[in-house]
Amino acid sequence: MKNKKLLISISSAISVLLIIVVSYFIFSYSNNLNKFKEDLSSNNYEDASYCFNNGTKNIILKKTFIKSSEDIITEKLSEIENEYYSGDISEEETVEDLNGLLSLNTSNEEILNFKNTLPLIKDSKDSFDIGISKLDEENYLEALNYFKSVHNLSDCKAQALEYEETCLDKIREPILETVDEYISNEKYSKGIEYLDSQINSLPDDPKLQEKRDELENLRLEHLEDYSQKNIDKATARTAPVMEYYKKLNEDTINQFDITSNTNYLVFVNIAEQKTYVYEGSKNDWTLDKTFTCSTGIEGKETPVGVFTVQNRAPWFFSPKYGQGGKYYVQFMGNYLFHSIPFDSDKTTISDPTLGVPASHGCIRLSVEDSKWLYDNVQNGSKIIIY
What we know:
By secondary structure, this protein is of the alpha+beta class. The chain has helices spanning about 1-40, 45-55, 60-85, 90-100, 110-115, 120-135, 140-150, 155-185, 190-200, 205-230, 365-375, and strands spanning about 265-270, 275-280, 285-290, 305-310, 310-320, 325-330, 335-340, 365, 380-385. α1 (about 1-40) packs parallel to α3 (about 60-85), α7 runs antiparallel to α8 (about 155-185) and α8 (about 155-185) packs parallel to α10.
């Protein structure tokens, strides 16, 4: 009798326990499903994914939960489609919502089918495929542009970025090889000119910009070295400069007993690519004008030393170089101050460059500045260049 009562008690306890366990799983199922639906409704896909994963751990109602959640996803997909076609959400927002649904790792076929009909996705896939084709043809610039046009939301984007780097390396390689040849021949200005013509195709490329900075530094070092070597020769032209080499500026100009045969003194700083015009007399000079200029490139450097203004004319033309200049002021032989270069028609500018070495040895100024120098700095005026 006692054993029978014990069995009844155990059976009752087990029944109660089973009821509790089943009730828990039913409650968990209902709670997760409601929360899943709520999260999807608010586009909170991360929390929805968490709820979905919890729901699939329900050993009793797992299949039921998956079936119910798929119905909710289908309903959400239909909602997204309607909002997209009615124009209530953008294409980008549509893709983001679809990616959110795909992150739930449920049945994806319907979601993918709709996603692949979107122009953003379709066009990106087409661009990616054409990019691959152009890459195979070794048409790296066109391939690069196609890979760049792949949208950030496209599944191809990660691969496209890798292929972009491949294209960039292929485009850079011959450019950098050519630049290195210019460097080995100490043709830094030509290297910069060439690199600038190539940078247009890769305007934001940090490696090409880094190479350009290197060229600028090498050019500056070359100019300073050129000046130093000429000063060190201590010729009649350069010996007077030794006392104030690298020391001459507005604050020190009156410390070196510098004279001029007129009331103007001109100082050209090659490293700075600046022309400074002082007015006054010995130890009483005042800076009057500062002009941005361009001196000679490597191999055609502007001479260094002390000179005097010898002659002037309103125009010259060089058949050798196919260009001329306005308002020239001569300071030694064929070396002149003059305007930026023009074609023979005296109207078409051949090269507007100022502020960096660009000439065949002359000192280029803007038209306005060369006109001022032509009008005001008379023959006999001292010119200091280094």
